[in-house]
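ugh ok so i messed up the first submission bc i forgot one of the chains. this is the corrected input, ALL of the components this time, i swear. 582 residues overall. if the numbers dont match what u have on ur side tell me asap before i send this to the collaborators (the ones from the other lab, u know who)
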Amino acid sequence: MGKTFAEKALGRAAGYDVVANQVVTVEPDWCMSHDNGAPIARTFKKIGVKNVWKPERIVFILDHAVPAPSSDHAVNHKEVREFSAEQGIKHFYDVTSDGGVCHQKMCEEGFALPGLIMVGSDSHTCTYGAYGAFSTGIGRSEMAAAWATGKIWFKVPESMKVVVTGKFNPGVSAKDFILKFIGDVKADGADYMSVEFHGEGIENMSIAERMTLCNMGIEFGAKNAVCRPDQKVLDAIKDNAKCDRWEPLWADEDAVYAAEYHYDLGDIEPGVAKPHKVDNYAPIGEVKGTKIHEAFLGSCTNGRIEDLRAAAAILKGNKVAVRTIVIPASWIVYRQAMKEGLLDIFLDSGCVICNPGCGPCMGNHEGILAPEEAAISTANRNFKGRMGDKDSFIYLASPMMVAASALKGEISDPREVL
Amino acid sequence: MSVKGKVWKYGDDVNTDVIFPGKYTYTIKERADMAKVALEDLDMEFNKNAKPGDIIVGGKNWGCGSSREQAVSCIKERGIAVIIAKSFARIYYRNCFNEGLPIIVCPEAVDAISMGDEIEVDFESGVIKAGGKEFKFPAYPEFVQGLIKDGGLIPHVKKSLGLA
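and heres the new structure output, hopefully the right one now
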């Protein structure tokens, strides 16, 4: 009987053969925290251990509210700085032009690597599966305990296989596919499971698109989501891998799955997640014409250069009808967008460009909605109150649909403006 | 140990943002203050009137969304005795054990319980008593029993490192 990716990755880390449902204790290759490094540091101190187990395995990336929008946030950042200095944590991305959204930084800086065990105190840590890592989100106590002991337990998850063939039609992207998929399997469709994306449809995707898929894994309950680390990944990490502990791993042909799904990307059309649940899917035909007050292009889901290019192609030479906030996922992305002239396109069309970070995604700053307002957003969650007000509405969509909708002030089909 | 309390009942997919809104994640630091905003975007009745010893009953996938542990801390600090649900999202499930908040997966009981019911949970025998009926629930998995016994992950780690 063959092995799944999760069985191989956790078995490699445990140092012995494992099967689904077995409980293993492993040493994480990386422990990532963002602004919540501060409360985790406070919990860590309560344990009574003087030093973290390996400071070189800990990564801090400030992104949730940067630069600090309030004194409370500033105190929080200050505590992360002090703890980093005290513990000798070198992998620290502060509020500088080296920064950005944590998940984007973990990928572009070469932390996300095939076969590694990566934990983060953020639910979208599952993004690194785009590079073939076993990565998953954990809570604050668990992170503090991992810093103290260098250990974390996992139940080896059962696995779901998603086989993807074909190619997207113009105006359709990875976001449309994953929203449709979540609408089909629902918010708990892969609860506690490892989700493997297979097939030529995935091989044809850029790493950025695979990141969008894996990022949204948590939105249908996955413990982790992963794509095969192919030549595209090996080329991307060739010059900037942050360690040499990695090893490309992939499931055996005869691995056993708890569930299996098949999709042809040619069948996917533009779609959204309607308020207030990510699995509340609707194809464009059902929501076209819905009035919006804000458009948001950015986040760990869709703030990469490929996303900005796709949106800029639609915005170019046109004016937006509603406030449109553009937030590149990192300063590397920002600079690249500047070089390619994309920032000029955004500014010429009336968009507001904010500094890289999470922006309005979880209601901290830079685009909070008023009661009764609706936003179309490229982020990953549309929960009630997510963007700061419980009486507002969020529609999740692709960068192309967000751009098309920004131009009309209502939800619009990107295929009509390509 | 057994507890008896009034039920606050909710549906499927109750997410961490409505349990503990994201806008508070870096402005509220004290656990007592977390308790004050518990379920603020889900149910203001609960937010105003829930009392220590009350019980939350949810549908499937309770606690989906963010990894924010405050979505567990705020409920524990509020004194909620136990959460019973059809299923829990996995990070939330782990966070509950790590925080020492008792949770029970029992779909049959959830279907039989209504908002405002008085129910009783006996942890020793693994039985929920509601509306004159009894519902058995399984013992916690062996690997989390140590966590529960020690009152959560941090006390458990302290003990295992000889620092308790």
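quick check: Residues 275-416 of chain A form a domain with the Aconitase; domain 3 fold (CATH 3.30.499.10). that seems consistent at least. The first strand of chain A starts at residue 23 and ends at 26.
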